[in-house]
Specification:
The chain is 56% helix and 12% strand. By secondary structure, the protein is of the alpha/beta class. The chain binds thymidine-5'-diphosphate.
């Protein structure tokens, strides 16, 4: 496909939202995108109309209607399938760029490493949901657990954020493993947002320069 799928991922509190905001301004002016290509900024869960409803069911439910682990896995996969069909694939086919706040790695980290669901099954489900689309570049914003908890102290946690430290540690190990296996770009996100932005800009420029050399 002609376009480009760029993903930001990491544990809660890693600063994805600020960096997505920064990149949505910087990327179109960076000289990295081909002329005429548009940038679509999106997220999982919740990148489509149906996905917004699924996000609500996943994250802001009463205890009574909270999904069990397997249900949770299937809802994230459903959100992704809809996102691929309605947003990501059509944009890629036009040659546009997509910047996504989370993608399929989050399911391996949270539902696989965090909830301890079977990784082989999750990967099969990933193949079904993504329909042959994979991220071209994933930036992993690596932040320490204590820093993540400190940053989120004053905020209202959603259902998954409320899981606590042990869960977050397992999820973080998942991201560590994925970054290694899938050649993600690791960004140290323990620092102030402008420094993280600078690091991301440099990493992307290097990445595309190396592509040209090859
Ligand atoms: P996110 O949108 O990053 O939270 P916020 O609104 O605070 O920025 O992600 C929502 C939550 O969903 C987050 O705790 C991680 C979780 N999640 C999974 O558990 N599995 C997944 O596959 C995805 C995409 C997200």
């Amino acid at each position: 496909m002609k376009g480009y799928l760029l993903v930001l991922d990491g544990i809660d509190g890693c600063g994805k939202t600020s960096q997505i905001n920064h990149l949505s301004n910087w990327l179109p002016r960076s000289g990295l995108m081909p002329k005429g290509a548009k940038l679509h900024v999106t997220k999982e869960p919740g990148g489509t109309h149906l996905g917004t409803a699924l996000r609500q069911l996943l994250l802001n439910t009463s205890n009574e209607s909270a999904p069990e682990s397997t249900t949770e896995l299937l809802l994230y996969a459903a959100d992704r399938a809809q996102h691929i069909s309605q947003v990501i694939r059509p944009a890629l086919e036009k040659g546009d760029w997509i910047l996504s706040d989370r993608f399929s790695g989050s399911t391996i980290a949270y539902q696989g490493y965090g909830r301890k669901l079977n990784i082989d099954i999750i990967e099969t489900l990933e193949a079904i949901a993504t329909q042959g689309v994979s991220a071209d570049i994933t930036l992993w914003l690596k932040v320490g657990i204590e820093e993540s908890l400190r940053r989120r102290k004053a905020t209202n946690n959603d259902r998954i954020e409320a899981e606590g430290k042990d869960f977050l540690e397992k999820v973080s190990l998942g991201f560590e493993a994925l970054a290694e296996q899938r050649n993600w770009i690791t960004i140290c996100a323990n620092q102030e947002a402008p420094l993280v932005s600078q690091h991301i800009e440099n990493a992307l420029k290097n990445y595309f320069e190396n592509l040209l050399v090859i």
